[in-house]
Amino acid sequence: MKKLLLALITSSVTLVFADANPVYVQLQAGASFSPNFGSGVDGAGAVRADVGYMFNQYVGLEGGFTGTTNPGNSANSNAVAQSYGNIPSGLQFYDVSVKGVLPLGEIFDLHGQIGGAYVTGGLNSYGANDATIKALVAAGVGFNLTKQFALTVNDYQYLGAEAGSLSGAGGNTNIVMGGVAYKF
């Protein structure tokens, strides 16, 4: 009987804290900064798409894809172009993370993420391809316009140990983005 009562109380507490719209999608655009492309401040374009599930208003799970463009003007890109006759392509990040949210009223919230990412990138015409696993640490803010729509600003830091690869897949990459989220 005690186990049944405990199960009922636990499920009731979970339902009270469950978010009314647990599934969300997020689209963002911004800039990528990676020291592996040479200058350390490349400002390559970046786009991101996420799908997430909030278990309650504080904790969720998020999967995302980020694609960056070729920075093109860095010292490393130009050196590779002179050596191989081509320029490194952008990077693709496939990541999964745990998301923590701190709501500050109904309109504003702070959030952080920790997880991992599979990162790949290659040389456009040469066909070489680098791939690695990186840690993901992120922080951001959300401005809830309605119960379904929010504006977001995030800073994603992909941390890796392999620096100096031709495509930039290794080493650290910082991506700053802004966008919109929709809760179903």
Please, could you describe this protein's structure?
There is one protein chain. Helices cover 14% and strands 56% of the residues. It has helices at 2-17, 75-84; strands at 23-33, 44-54, 59-68, 88-104, 108-123, 129-144, 149-159, 173-183. The longest helix has 16 residues, at 2-17.
- How many helical elements? 2
Seen as an oligomer or otherwise, the chain set is single chain
Report on the biggest sheet: 8 strands, antiparallel, barrel
Instruction: Give helix and strand order, one letter per element, not per position.
Output: HEEEHEEEEE
Overall outline: globular
Uncertain residue ranges: 12-18, 37-41, 73-78
- First-last Cα distance: 37 Å
Q: Give the structural class.
A: mainly beta
Please tally the β strands and state the result: 8
Average the pLDDT over all residues and give the rounded result.
78
**Radius of gyration (Å):** 20 Å
Strand content: over 45%
- Percent helix, as a range, is 10-25%
Tell me the strand order in the biggest sheet: 1-2-3-4-5-6-7-8
